[in-house]
């Protein structure tokens, strides 16, 4: 169990290492120091205090954040996280990464991100609804369909998006489906958004396996995290014939070198991505990361591959479905060990791509089939994979720096044309 001080210092180091990589990218692109000064922090950061009437009649005051990293390209976009370890520094880093994800995928957005310090697993449905609505009331001045568009992230889901959309629509007194994405389909959500992050990860894996001349059907895979991202990644890989030998959640991990039965695990997981509590023969998350496999997919939280365990990772490909799971020192160790690292900015961008499609459909009031959405996602992700892969070879950099280079260019140019730099 990590302490609050440890969580704060790891969030600070997350931001510092994001800034160091951003500095490297702006230098390689030949931008002046002023560009880095603009891009190293969000242009806007709001901290809110949210009073929530709890079921016992008492009021609990929660702290939340919304960061808007850069709005030169267009409105900002990014998820809202409900988690005990949320911090201002973490939200700042996540918003910077959202700008880069939007840049890599050529979406007409800058990056935003939000979070509330809370533990939704300890809250009732009614308390969660009041917290979701309270958060929207507090940030309503700075968000909106043409300003900043939230979406789901860790421990938030389509029901929470529905409450948030309803609250925003009541405040503004008009129906505003384009205020938020990741909504239920009946409220203007997009077909394919629920599975989009996992589909994006799958597409990256298929491209990576191709460039390495390997076969997906022969691959043994370990996935850390069994929530929205992890559970669908497991399903898609299992359906493609890969052997999923390990999965985990916050409490522990399951490992079987002969392969796990993913359909059964998916039937038994709860809405918080918890399943290992139903088994006796569990191992720890730390042990799981070092087990034999070909592809390792961190799909939970940040700072899971560090200088402490990177040298013992057995996988040949590491695919970051989570945001920030690998530290900079660990990135260097993996790259030096000839492990292909597909960075979060690329691998986890399927979610925001389909969120963009959802917003487009809301704006035009005309909705696409799941096949159309998946096809459009596939086209974009394949293009982005090769963009980052080729940038790495052109700049002789690791894949993470390449993703920063590919993601920075559009917002830097937009900031320049606006006369900010
Ligand atoms: N949902 C989405 O559309 C997107 C999610 N992501 C990233 O993917 C990651 C997972 O997100 P979701 O699947 O949406 O979240 P989720 O809330 O659906 O699932 C989270 C999973 O991580 C596990 N977990 C939580 N704390 C953990 C810890 N300390 N150690 C190990 N496991 C832990 C939970 O038990 C659960 O299985 C996050 O880093 C998120 O930012 C990135 C892009 C889009
Ligand atoms: O779907 C979105 O708009 C944002 C998803 C997100 O928060 C992320 O990619 O980290």
TrEMBL record:
Superkingdom assignment: Bacteria
Residues the UniProt record annotates as site (Important for catalysis): 153
Pfam family, one: ELFV_dehydrog_N
Classification via InterPro entries: Aminoacid_DH-like_N_sf, Glu/Leu/Phe/Val/Trp_DH, Glu/Leu/Phe/Val/Trp_DH_C, Glu/Leu/Phe/Val/Trp_DH_dimer, Glu/Leu/Phe/Val_DH_AS, Glu_DH, NAD(P)-bd_dom_sf, NAD_bind_Glu_DH
Positions annotated to bind substrate: 77, 101, 355
Keyword tRNA processing in record: no
Alphabetical keyword list: NAD, Nucleotide-binding, Oxidoreductase
Gene Ontology biological-process annotations: L-glutamate catabolic process
Family note: Belongs to the Glu/Leu/Phe/Val dehydrogenases family.
Name listed for the protein in its UniProt record: Glutamate dehydrogenase
């Amino acid at each position: 169990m990590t302490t609050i001080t440890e969580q704060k210092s790891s969030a600070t180091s997350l931001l510092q290492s994001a800034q160091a990589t951003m500095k490297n990218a702006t230098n390689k692109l030949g931008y002046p120091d002023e560009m880095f000064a603009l891009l190293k922090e969000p242009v806007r950061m709001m901290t809110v205090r949210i009073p929530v009437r709890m079921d016992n009649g008492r009021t609990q005051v929660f702290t939340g954040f919304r960061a808007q990293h850069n709005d030169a390209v267009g409105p900002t976009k990014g998820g809202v996280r409900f988690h005990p370890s949320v911090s201002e520094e973490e939200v700042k880093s996540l918003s910077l990464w959202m700008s880069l994800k939007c840049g890599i995928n050529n979406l007409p957005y800058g990056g935003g991100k939000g979070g509330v310090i809370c533990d939704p697993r300890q809250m009732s449905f009614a308390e969660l609804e009041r917290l979701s609505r309270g958060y929207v009331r507090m940030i309503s001045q700075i968000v909106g369909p043409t300003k900043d568009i939230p979406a789901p992230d860790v421990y938030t889901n389509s029901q929470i998006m529905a409450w948030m959309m309803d609250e925003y629509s009541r405040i503004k007194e008009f129906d505003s489906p384009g205020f938020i994405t990741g909504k239920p389909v009946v409220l203007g959500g997009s077909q394919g958004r629920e599975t989009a992050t996992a589909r994006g990860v799958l597409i990256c894996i298929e491209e990576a396996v191709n460039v390495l001349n390997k076969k997906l059907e022969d691959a043994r895979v370990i996935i850390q995290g069994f929530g929205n991202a992890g559970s669908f990644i497991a399903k898609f890989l299992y359906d493609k014939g890969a052997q999923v030998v390990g999965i985990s959640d916050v409490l522990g991990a399951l490992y079987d070198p002969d392969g796990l039965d993913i359909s059964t695990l998916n039937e038994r997981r709860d809405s918080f991505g918890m399943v290992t509590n139903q088994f006796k023969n569990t191992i720890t998350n730390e042990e799981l990361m070092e087990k034999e496999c070909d592809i390792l997919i961190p799909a939970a939280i940040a700072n899971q591959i560090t200088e402490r365990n990177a040298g013992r990772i057995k996988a040949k490909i590491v695919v970051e479905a989570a945001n920030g799971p690998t530290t900079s020192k660990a990135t260097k160790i993996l790259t030096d060990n000839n492990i292909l690292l597909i960075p979060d900015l690329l691998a986890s961008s399927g979610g925001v791509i389909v969120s963009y499609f959802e917003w487009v459909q809301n704006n035009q009031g005309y909705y696409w089939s799941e096949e159309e959405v998946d096809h459009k996602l596939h086209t974009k992700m394949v293009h982005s994979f090769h963009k980052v892969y080729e940038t790495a070879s052109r700049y002789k950099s690791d894949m993470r720096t390449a993703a920063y280079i590919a993601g920075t260019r559009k917002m830097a140019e937009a900031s320049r044309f606006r006369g900010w730099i």
